[in-house]
């Protein structure tokens, strides 16, 4: 079965497009021919090489790399690298096309989700608004394919990426995840999300802490007394109280931070919530003082 024409790249790519359209509309009994695509490795390699071609060739290559990706597992790493080259092209139209096609590499297998998510996380540093929107859309698509794998790539960059990527990854996770609902963020995924957020909380600034706390309060932690106690403990840890706490000392820099932490913790205070972590400071502040901060 002649699936591809091994000729010049433009003809090859257009031949692929025409062939795919024909196969798509063939009867069910002929669809078995799809199994034999793996016999055309040389032609797939030519498609990978097309990422060095003209603008038209690059756009078509992006689509076909993803479309036939599952049939050539031996060349998975090369295909991902070729797609990454397109994501870094000088032509923004090509970059956006390649970014849009990235999630398709994970459509039939979750093996590469972490890597693709890691790539998209790095691409969050894009400055052009439509390109950044394309990255957001691809990450959302990837989350619906494999939420846990996608989060692992994002948190990898939050922990190990540079400041700009870290900041944008945190912003993406804290602003987008809730919109997916618990149909996508299942209990297993939520447990992973909570674990990773706790790791990140070991080294955050005030804004990042607030963003992550808001996300954590959306999870099961905000729904149970035990979970709310965990949230209060996290807040108390940020307050960094110690036995030498003296709020009337003019040199004490902990007062403002303590007041903000009190305010964050108030929604989770109850008869059942243990406040031992704040007991040193409680005698010095009234509820009105805390709310006024």
Give a quick set of tags describing it.
293 residues, 14 helices
Topology (SSEs and partners):
Elements: H1 9-24, H2 41-49, H3 55-67, H4 76-87, H5 92-101, H6 113-123, H7 129-145, H8 147-160, H9 163-184, H10 187-200, H11 206-218, H12 225-239, H13 254-265, H14 287-292
Helix pairs in contact: 1-3, 3-4, 3-5, 4-5, 5-7, 6-7, 6-8, 7-8, 7-9, 8-9, 8-10, 9-11, 12-13
Walk me through the structure:
This protein has helices at 9-24, 41-49, 55-67, 76-87, 92-101, 113-123, 129-145, 147-160, 163-184, 187-200, 206-218, 225-239, 254-265, 287-292. The protein has 293 residues and is mainly α. The protein has three domains: 1-109, no CATH class; 110-223; 239-293, no CATH class. The longest helix has 22 residues, at 163-184. It starts with 8 loop residues before the first helix and ends with a helix. Residues 1-9 and 23-34 have low confidence and may be disordered.
Mean of residue pLDDT values: 82
Unreliable stretches: 1-9, 23-34
Proportion of residues in β-strands: under 5%
Number of strands: 0
How many structural domains in the coordinates? 3
How would you spell out the order of helices and strands? Answer: HHHHHHHHHHHHHH
Largest sheet, strands/sense/barrel: none
Q: What is the gyration radius calculated from CA atoms?
A: 25 Å
Which percent bin holds the helix content? 55-70%
Q: What class, by secondary structure content?
A: mainly alpha
Q: Overall 3D geometry?
A: elongated
Question: Can you count the helices?
Answer: 14
Q: End-to-end span in angstroms?
A: 74 Å
């Amino acid at each position: 079965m002649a699936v591809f024409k091994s000729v010049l790249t433009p003809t090859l790519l257009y031949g692929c497009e025409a062939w795919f359209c024909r196969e798509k509309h063939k009867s069910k009994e002929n669809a078995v021919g799809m199994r034999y695509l793996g016999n055309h490795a040389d032609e797939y390699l030519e498609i990978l090489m097309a990422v060095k071609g003209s603008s038209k060739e690059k756009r078509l290559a992006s689509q076909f790399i993803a479309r036939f990706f599952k049939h050539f597992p031996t060349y998975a790493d090369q295909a991902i690298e070729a797609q990454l080259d397109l994501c870094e092209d000088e032509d923004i139209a090509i970059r956006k096309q390649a970014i849009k096609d990235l999630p398709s590499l994970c459509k039939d297998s979750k093996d590469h989700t972490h890597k693709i998510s890691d790539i998209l996380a790095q691409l969050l540093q894009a400055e052009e608004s439509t390109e950044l929107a394309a990255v957001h859309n691809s990450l959302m698509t990837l989350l619906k394919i494999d939420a846990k794998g996608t989060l692992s790539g994002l948190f990898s960059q939050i922990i190990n990426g540079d400041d700009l990527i870290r900041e944008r990854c945190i912003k993406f996770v804290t602003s987008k995840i809730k919109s997916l609902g618990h149909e996508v963020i299942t209990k297993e995924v939520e447990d992973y999300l909570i674990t990773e957020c706790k790791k990140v909380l070991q080294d955050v600034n005030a804004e990042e802490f607030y963003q992550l706390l808001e996300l954590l309060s959306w999870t099961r932690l905000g729904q149970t007394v035990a979970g709310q106690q965990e949230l209060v403990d996290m807040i108390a840890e940020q307050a960094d109280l110690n036995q030498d706490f003296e709020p009337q000392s003019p040199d004490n820099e902990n007062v403002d931070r303590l007041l903000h932490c009190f305010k964050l913790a108030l929604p989770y205070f109850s008869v059942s919530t243990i406040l031992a972590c704040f007991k040193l400071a409680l005698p010095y502040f009234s509820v009105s003082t805390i709310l006024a901060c």
